[in-house]
Amino acid sequence: MALTALLLGAPANALSPPADTVDELVAQLRDDPILVQPSMGMGDSAAAHDVLAEAAADVGVPVYVVLADTPADLAGTDSIAEQAAALFRAELGDGLYHVEFREGISYTRSWGGGELDEAYLAPVTFALERAESSGPGEYPQASALLEAVLTLRWAAAPLEELPDAMVDEYAAQPWAFLADSDYDRADATAGRRVAVLATSFGLLVAGVIVTLVVARAAPAGRGDVRRRLADQRSRAADRKRAASAGQQQVASAGATLSDPPSRVGPTRTGRGAPTTAVPADIAATATRQLDEARRRLASLSAERLTSPAGTTAADAVEAGDRVLATGDPLDAVGATVLAAIAVREVERTGSPKRPPYRPCFVDPLHGEARDTVRLEGSSIDAPACRDCARSPYAFLAVRRRFRGWAPYTETSTIWARTGFGALVGDLPAQVLDDRSGRR
Q1: Which of 287, 289, 316, 351 is the most exposed place for a label (fewest CB within 10 A)?
Q2: In the chain, which residues have pLDDT < 50?
C-alpha cells in the first residue's frame, strides 16, 4: 500500500525510463513539463521536481524545464542546451524554456511576445553570485537545480530583482550547491593559464606590440546592470504610451547590425594616440542586436541550426547574453560583435561562401573590417574598417579605476587578447570558455 501511494504521488516522468533522445524528451514533456532526471536531481529528483513545479506555478506563461543527461542525438555538438530548447519549442509551442544537460551550460529563452521575451536575466546572475559568495567550501558552485529554481522565480516578476531573503532560503537547502572539487578547479585554472600564455606568446610572435599612453579625459558612465533594469521598466512604460517613441524603436531595430551606435567624439591622450569612449547607450544597443540575432536564429530549420555555421551562431548568441549580463561596458561592446557574428553565421547557413564576420580592430563599433591598417609600433597590418585604414584612427577606450582612460588593448581582458574577434576566428568559443572558467 505504501509503495502504491508513493507511485501514485510521483511525477509522471519519474515513472518513465530516462529519455535518451530529443524525441523521447519531448514525449515526456508532453506528459509533464518539468523533467528532472536522477543524475541532475541532487539526490532526490522527485523532490527537485516538486520545488520546480511550485516555482513554475507563479509564471504567467507555459514553463518547460529540462535537467537531464545529454541526449544521444545531440552528443558531441555545440550549444546543446540551446539546440534542444529550439527543438522543444518547435514541438511544444511558445513558453519559457530552461534547459541544462550534464555536459554543457544552461540555456533560458522565452517565446510568445510578452515582457518575458525581452527581460534581462541579470537578476538571476545577481542571485547566484550572492548565493555562491556565502556557499560552503572554498569554491562553492551553485547546482543546476538552484539556478533553475531562481530562474523560475525571476520569470514570475522579470523586471524586479530577486529578494535577498528568498535567495538565502534557497541557498540554505542541501541541494543548492555541488560537492566541492578542488582538483577539477585546479585543472581548469591551469588550463586557462596555459591558454592565456599561448595566446599572448602568439600575439608577440606575430608582432602585435601596441604601446599607448594612458588617456585622461571626461568620464563616461560605466554600465550598471541594476540601472539597466530600471531603464527596462521605463522603456516598458514608454512603449505603452508614446507612439513617436515606438517609431524610433522600429527604426532602431531595423538598423544593420554592422552600423555603429551613436559615437562619442575622439579625445586625444596628449602624447599618445587618440581614443574614443564607449557610448553610454551601448547596453541598449547590444540588447537590440542580440534580440535580432536571436530572432534570425530561431527562424532556421533544424538542419541549418545543427550545421557548423548554425552552431557557431548559437554559440555567439549564448556568449553575447552571458557577457551582456555583467554590466561592464567592454563586455557590452563585445556583445554587439557577437550579435554581428551570429547574424553572419545565420546567413552562412544558406550562403557558405560569405566570409565570417571580423570587426574593426581599432574600434569594433565601426563595424566590419574591410581593409587593414598598420598599427603604430607594430610590424603587422590589423583588420580595420575603411575609415580607420584611410585616416588617423582612434582606439576604443575604457575608464580604468586608478589610471584614467586607456585604449581597450591595454586591458587584461579577452577583448584585448582577441581584438574583439579581429585577430581570431573562434571568438564565441573563446568567450564561452573564458566565462565558464570564471565560474
Answers
A1: 351
A2: 1-10, 14, 181-226, 228, 239-273, 437-439
Q: What are the backbone dihedrals phi and psi of residue 215, each rounded to the nearest 5 degrees, phi first? A: -95, 145
Can you give the residue range of the structural domain that contains 412?
A: 210-438
CATH of the domain at 19: 3.10.310
Give the model's pLDDT for residue 403: 58
Among the three residues 144, 171, 198, which one is the final residue of a domain in this structure? Answer: 171
Dihedral pair phi/psi, residue 423, rounded to 5°:
-105, -5
Give the cell for residue 356. 565570417
144 and 216 together in one domain: no
Domain count of the chain? 2
